[in-house]
Amino acid sequence: MTATTVSAPQAFLASAKSLLGEKGFTQDADTIEPWLTDWRGRYTGRALGLASPASTAEVAALMALCNEHRIPVVPQGGNSGMAGGATPDESGEGILLSLRRMNAIRSLDVGAAQVVCEAGVILQTLHEATEEHGLRFPLTLGGKGSATIGGLISTNAGGTQVLRYGTMRAQVLGLKAVLADGRVFDALTVLKKDNRGFDLKQLLIGSEGTLGVVTAATLRLLPLPRSRVTAWVGLSSVIDARTLLRQSQTSLGEALEGFEVVPAHCLQSVLAHLPNARSPLVQTHAWNALIECTSPSEDAGALRARLEAALESALEAGLIADAAIAANEAQAEQFWTLRDSISPAERALGPAMQHDISVPVERMPEFILAAIPIVEDEFPGTTGAAFGHLGDGNVHFHVLAPADAVAGQWEEEEGHRISARVHDLVTQCGGSISAEHGIGQMKVAELGRLGDPVALSMMRAVKTALDPHDLLNPGKLVP
Questions:
Q1: Residue 355: domain span
Q2: SS3 assignment for 208-274
Q3: Is 80 exceeded by the pLDDT of residue 6?
Q4: pTM above the 0.70 mark?
Q5: Which of 315, 341, 367 marks a domain boundary?
Q6: Greatest CA separation found in the chain?
């Protein structure tokens, strides 16, 4: 039985095809197949069909039709999520709703520094479009070539610039979304002051498609930086990295845009994975920091001098062992490629349990130093690694399987116990089991186990109020 023939309600299918046309609705198994498995390959589901509407009006009409026939809907952007949030379940009772055809940048107001774009716009496309006007969208991440604006809003994505600019929530000035019954919530217009009750768009940001389908957004833009300086720093410990972070915040102020940490294990994995990749430093260091500074007004020479002075001071104090400042933009991008390639490099090594966690910045080094030995001791043969956004207290805590582990079997038999242990440690430290990738289906049970009962009851109440038939992304986010 294929994904296109599971208990197909003929009346609904006929209406959906009539509504959206050949481009907008398909049951072709080959067309649907690539979108039934998540990016990590952890989850695979089935679907009645793939809907690809071209406008908010079509999304609204489709949702009304699904509500009438009680057809579950799984919204999907670039399918680059890390928690299985855009993958249907195995029942085959629902449809995939792709927003990829809705990819127009509707308007860009240079004076107001705002852009209105549809949910299917790819992040890299938005970057390129805004840069043509001397502006920038201040959020980026490794998957910028496939991640869509709708998906980024739905998961409240973070990325490497959160330290200075905040998560996706801070970039959204207005949005438009379709509710489960087909009604359209329109809050695209930006008002500096609006005190008419709840800020309802905030409910939709980070709701992972469980409360509504985001179809368009008004986003804030910033001036392109006049200068950018990037450095790769070698350190002996992650505690020294935290000290360097605090000193950099003091000496560099608002110019400090990114502060990432990369342990030696992760860097070596990337160097083995990427052809022609080279380490920025001659010697191997237990920890590395990737520091980026930008300024909209200061020239590159002055900004570079300030970063050099900060690093020289840290070197004289014995805080860092070595540092390399990128000589040009190409070298800066090479530094970032090393950082952004960690996840695919480690995936190539074999099975692993990946954890997107956060704890208070001041506790993160001690958490890493304590948690990795605990996990490696309790689960012999595993290797723990933590890397990422130290500046905002969010690291990616990976536990790599033993060399003889069987992919699929190890995750099911051992992986879940490992994740539960990691999440327990995070919760004990006052942290979050999901910092920027969302809950999806991967962590929904863990959220139910560890989440605050009052917060969970409020989430369930909101879900019931806006989606009483549980049609929008069922089985995700809300335990």
A1: 350-436
A2: CCCCCEEEEEEEECEECCCEEEEEEEEECCHHHHHHHHHHHHHHHHHHEEEEEEEEHHHHHHHHHHC
A3: no
A4: yes
A5: 341
A6: 75
